[in-house]
Write a structure and sequence with these properties.
This protein is α+β, with helices and mostly antiparallel strands. It contains 18 helices and 39 strands. The chain folds into 6 domains: about 100 residues, Rossmann fold (3-Layer(aba) Sandwich), CATH 3.40.50.20; about 150 residues, ATP-grasp fold, B domain (D-amino Acid Aminotransferase, Chain A, domain 1, 2-Layer Sandwich), CATH 3.30.470; about 70 residues, Dna Ligase, domain 1, CATH 3.30.1490.20; about 120 residues, ATP-grasp fold, B domain (D-amino Acid Aminotransferase, Chain A, domain 1); about 130 residues, Glycoprotein, Type 4 Pilin (2-Layer Sandwich); about 70 residues, OB fold (Dihydrolipoamide Acetyltransferase, E2P) (Beta Barrel), CATH 2.40.50. It is about 25% helix and about 35% strand. The protein has an 8-stranded antiparallel beta sheet, sandwiched between helices. The longest helix has 20 residues.
């Protein structure tokens, strides 16, 4: 690992982490260089850098993962050091070795340390030798399917299958029974090969209600090593973190010291240098077990910065220049509490499918929400007008807050989430609000299956509220009215009559019940009153005088019986997505029931792609009889697999795509014939 002073830093990454690293680099007086793919030619990290160099086409393997192209970009721009961010090349030992040969400083650990922790099985053995407690499991080199199955049977279900070279939740499955093992193993191997070009697996006993607690460690090249306390990252979905906080709730001083010292032992065992995170599973009895070490800066590092007052990227850069750690262990102090919420372009109502599109607005109004700028931080890789691509991880930004204690920090988080204005792309913001406001989360009843255990309440239909349905109906009525006005009145079939009130009837309901014949929608009747923006609504036996005022972007002001509310609304096909502060997001399926019924469709005989992506595998043969819910095809998008299942009993008549093909959102994937 090269160690030298440098005045130009190349950031070999994209999105929010590239922007965040460059922010500190500029503050230290360093010149910054960005790299980009064709999909990111006008991305925010490119716009903010002093220089930017194209690496190649959109696919990461042809751009951000091309070691030679990244090194050549550093040579062309005179960059003496490369910061890898996280993901991509951040834990790639051969990349670090290539930088050493080129005389370029890597802002991170030596290749030997990456290799020691990159092989999860070998890492477990070294940690055991260093006295770091381990979860029972199999970490051997023999990867025969039958042997792995026998080891899982011996450990006892449930077990956790993990890619030996993995991270970020990829190549990972919880296996509940012996009958599920082979299918889970096949899926893990596919994901692991695609993400890491390595399909070796390890098996661990799956603890049913553990907490995920990790310790931030830092080491320099002079033998100095400290831990900067811990973070609780228990709230996850698909093994990926959603909400993180520091310090961990309920942590005692003795347990903090014990875990911190174990983490430092782990780092020293492999000759670590730089920022690293040692991840533990913490059981209810206070026992903890080593999971893995991330040999890079973590996504959630800002919560540690908030409670310690330290800039961890600055520490990284100074250590990479050969300096000693800025502070010793007894000089580090912990102050207050911090949360981080990860904002993703994804649809929680559609099993968290990744979303793409253009951000028509992306802003955080702190002043309007009465929040102090030093208590709220938004680490973002996007701005209004930016395009969200299908090619990369769907995380848009991280919202980080600080408070004197956990309750105060949580209250600030809820207000900041409500103040975050994101329009044009479906996001998980409403879901984050439900998580942060959940009584069990407030009560610190945390474990890694939190979302799974509280699925019923987190995904429950929103309670019926006259004002919410009235507001949604008013937006739908306005849209229909504008469509009608764009056509000749003689071509209209919507109930419009000369010299008569303009009346439209709508049915609104939960999207999950849109095709449920027994679901009872809410019927709203709207009649034009006077000017174009005024309506009289009848809903649930109640009549309201309503007015709609269009504001910037997707924002509107709805006035019901003299009560004016500002909200954001987005029409997505036959759904209305309405964000009302502070209640959060309401999603309603809508259709006309007075003349033209836009919601009625015959049963479709095709299955369409729910997002842009790549076909990974076809799981049945054309003509094969299948049952409802049976897996038919596997797609991959934004580094995660998605399985499409049969909508009914029947058979697949033909596939339109083969494994390896790229498909666009809405493309017809196959022809399906349902049983009569």
């Amino acid at each position: 690992m090269s160690l030298s002073r440098f005045d130009t830093l190349l950031v070999a990454n994209r999105g929010e982490i590239a922007c965040r690293v460059m922010r500190t680099a500029r503050a230290m007086g360093l010149r910054t260089v960005a790299v980009y793919s064709d999909a990111d030619a006008n991305a925010r990290h490119v716009r903010e850098a002093d220089e930017a160099v194209r690496l190649g086409p959109a696919a990461a393997r042809d751009s951000y993962l091309k070691v030679e192209a990244v090194i050549e970009a550093a040579r062309r721009t005179g960059a003496g050091a490369i910061h890898p961010g996280y993901g991509f090349l951040s834990e790639n030992g051969p990349f670090v070795e290539a930088l050493d040969e080129a005389g370029i400083t890597f802002v991170g650990p030596p290749a030997s340390a990456i290799a020691a922790m990159g092989d999860k099985s070998a890492a477990k053995a070294r940690m055991q030798a260093a006295g770091v407690p381990l979860v029972p499991g199999y970490h051997g080199n023999d990867q025969d399917d039958a042997l792995l199955k026998a080891e899982a049977d011996q450990i006892g279900y449930p077990v956790l299958l993990k890619a030996s070279a993995g991270g970020g939740g990829k190549g990972m499955r919880v296996v509940e029974s012996a009958a599920d093992f082979q299918a889970a193993l096949d899926g893990c191997r596919r994901e692991s090969r695609a993400a890491f070009n390595d399909d070796r697996m390890l098996i661990e006993k799956y603890l049913t209600q553990p907490r995920h607690v990790e310790v931030q460690v830092f080491c320099d090249s002079h033998g100095g090593a400290v831990y900067l306390f811990e973070r609780d990252c228990s709230v996850q979905r698909r093994h990926q973190k959603v909400l993180e906080e520091a310090p961990a709730p309920g942590m005692t001083a003795s347990l903090r010291r014990e875990m911190g010292e174990a983490a430092v032992r782990a780092a020293k065992e492999i000759g670590y240098v730089g920022a690293g995170t040692v991840e533990f599973l913490l059981d209810a009895d206070g026992s903890f077990f080593f999971m893995e070490m991330n040999t890079r800066l973590q996504v959630e590092h800002p919560v540690t910065e908030m409670i310690t007052g330290q800039d961890l990227v600055e520490w990284q850069l100074r250590v990479a220049m050969g300096e000693r750690l800025p502070l010793a262990q007894d000089e580090l102090t912990l102050s207050g509490h911090s949360f981080e919420a990860r904002l993703y372009a994804e649809d929680p109502a559609q099993d968290f499918l990744p979303a793409t599109g253009r951000l028509t607005r992306f802003a955080l109004d702190l002043a309007g929400a009465g929040l102090a700028a030093d208590k709220v931080r938004l680490d973002s890789g996007v701005e209004s007008g930016d395009e969200v691509s299908m090619h990369y991880d769907p995380m848009l930004a991280k919202l980080i807050v600080h408070g004197a204690d956990r309750d105060q920090a949580l209250a600030t988080l809820n207000r900041a989430l409500a103040a975050l204005d994101v329009q044009g792309v479906v996001t998980n913001r409403g879901f984050l609000q439900r998580l942060a406001g959940h009584p069990a989360f407030k009560a610190c009843e945390l474990d890694t299956r939190f979302i799974e255990r509280h699925e019923a309440s987190l995904f429950a239909p929103q309670p019926y509220r006259v004002e919410d349905y009235a507001g949604a109906a008013l937006i739908g009525l306005d849209q229909l009215a504008r469509e009608c006005e764009s056509r000749s009145p003689w071509d209209r079939h919507d109930g419009f009559r000369l010299n008569a009130p303009h009346t439209i009837r709508l049915a609104l309901g939960d999207p999950a019940e849109a095709n449920d014949s027994e679901a009872t929608p809410v019927v709203v009747e709207g009649r034009r009153e006077g000017d174009a923006d005024a309506w009289q609504l009848t809903i649930g036996g109640e009549t309201l005088t309503a007015r709609l005022e269009r504001l910037a972007g997707d924002a509107v002001a709805v006035t019901l019986n003299g009560h004016r509310r500002r909200l954001q609304a987005r029409l997505v096909d036959n759904s209305l997505v309405v964000m009302v502060d502070p209640q959060g997001e309401t999603r309603l399926h809508w259709r006309r029931i007075d003349g033209i019924d836009h919601g009625h469709h015959e049963a479709e005989s095709t299955l369409t792609a729910p997002m842009h992506g790549t076909v990974v595998a076809l799981l049945v043969e054309p003509g094969q009889a299948v049952e409802k819910g049976m897996p038919l095809m596997v797609m991959e998008a934004m580094k995660m697999e998605h399985t499409l299942t049969a909508p009914a009993d029947g058979q697949v008549e033909s596939f339109h795509f083969a494994a390896g093909d790229t498909v666009g959102q809405g493309d017809v994937l196959l022809e399906f014939a349902a049983e009569e």
